[in-house]
Design goal:
- The chain has helices at residues 2-7, 14-27, 33-46, 50-68.
- It is mainly alpha-helical.
- The longest helix has 19 residues, at 50-68.
- The radius of gyration is 11 Å and the shape is globular.
């Protein structure tokens, strides 16, 4: 399920990227948060797609904020 939602963070629609990032973060168990951030960073380094870069960064921000709560 998480991988399907993750594909939606590439959407060209700004609002959908934000919604799918929130859904993706809600599906990530707290225990694998850092692994998920590292995975997103690895994918970011390989990508030149602006929509994915934005969606991944929004997701990482949400994951980091969740850790700080």
């Amino acid at each position: 399920m998480r991988s399907f939602v993750k594909t939606l963070i590439r959407s060209p629609v700004y609002f959908l990227r934000q919604l799918s990032s929130a859904a993706f973060v809600s599906l990530v168990p707290q225990i694998v948060t850092m692994e998920t951030i590292e995975e997103l960073v690895t994918e970011l380094l390989k990508s030149k797609e602006a929509n994915f870069i934005h969606g991944a960064m929004v997701s990482m921000e949400m994951l980091i904020n969740r850790c700080n709560e």
